[in-house]
């Protein structure tokens, strides 16, 4: 290495060291301010509400608007979310329940939203995820609600009908499926373990690449990775988190049939989220069993100028051949237009439950 090159590199590295020192000081200064926020809340009797999803969303939106690069918005969003997670943990690490075991896409969604400083609490079923928060054993739950290729997650919708929990956030996660195995080549793979949805999402790739391999559905992708790690001739369809946690090499990457395959998760808590400026409202309603009943329920949204982004029917649990409808709206229920539409809907719907108003997912 030439002397000129060493001098130029040394100068830039000195500047990097200087910036790193400034960053460290600023991060600790931010942490001290976060501690002051916790102390103020405690004095006013709100110590239990250390996490405010609307405030976090506002910070992330502002950071994205001010970002001039070269770091991408996705990168700076990840960084600031981790900073906020670390600062929150100084007050009290948040307990996050999700469908386990460790290594699932649900774990990835929980970490994406709450950062690595959160206390992860994997559960064996979606029902248990709900119960952990309802019983105050966990602070928040992260559960899948719909996939872009496979549709709604029925068990989540059924539980939302009866739970007292509120939707206070959402996470959108790109789903990249990898074939994980200790085998050296595709030709050595005789079995493929995975969750039923992942097998469906990779159906065409499996037909082309592993037509003779047995496909075995299991409870989760993480469980599939555990089985594949312990069995000769076995592979698993799972994500990067499972690959890292169970030390499984990737035989093939991004094998999902749809390149834009995405799962939407909702965050459930015991309190509402305030308006952030970019919000969504979710609700459940029923309709009278008569001609035009559903159109009458939808009319208040168009009359008030409120955009409806999702309408999903689901069999009601209490009556044969009766249905309820899950609806997503743009805006917070405190917004004037949404408030007007919901007031009129309450007069028309036999049953109406507001699941929550919450910030739209950040990238």
Number of helices: 12
The count of domains is: 3
Intertermini distance: 42 Å
Order of helices and strands: HHHEHEHEEHEEEHHEHEHEEEHEEHE
CATH class of the largest domain: Alpha Beta
Q: Which structural category do the helix and sheet elements fall into?
A: alpha/beta
Number of strands: 15
Average pLDDT confidence is: 91
Low-confidence stretches: none
Biggest sheet layout: 6 strands, mixed
* CATH architecture verdict of the largest domain: 3-Layer(aba) Sandwich
Helix proportion range? 40-55%
Taken as a percent bin, the fraction of beta residues is 15-25%
CATH fold-level name of the largest domain: D-Maltodextrin-Binding Protein, domain 2
Find the CATH superfamily of the largest domain. Answer: Periplasmic binding protein-like II
Task: Describe what you observe in this structure.
By secondary structure, this protein is of the alpha/beta class. The protein has three domains: 41-174, D-Maltodextrin-Binding Protein, domain 2 (3-Layer(aba) Sandwich), CATH 3.40.190; 178-260, Periplasmic binding protein-like II (D-Maltodextrin-Binding Protein, domain 2, 3-Layer(aba) Sandwich); 272-359, ACT domain (Alpha-Beta Plaits). The protein contains twelve helices and 15 strands. The chain has helices at residues 3-43, 53-66, 73-91, 105-114, 126-134, 154-162, 196-201, 203-209, 221-230, 240-245, 293-304, 336-348; strands spanning 95-99, 119-123, 140-147, 151-152, 166-174, 178-180, 191-194, 214-217, 234-238, 250-252, 262-269, 279-286, 308-315, 323-330, 352-359. Strands 1, 2, 3, 4, 5 and 11 form a six-stranded mixed β-sheet that branches. α2 (53-66) packs antiparallel against α3 (73-91) and α11 runs antiparallel to α12.
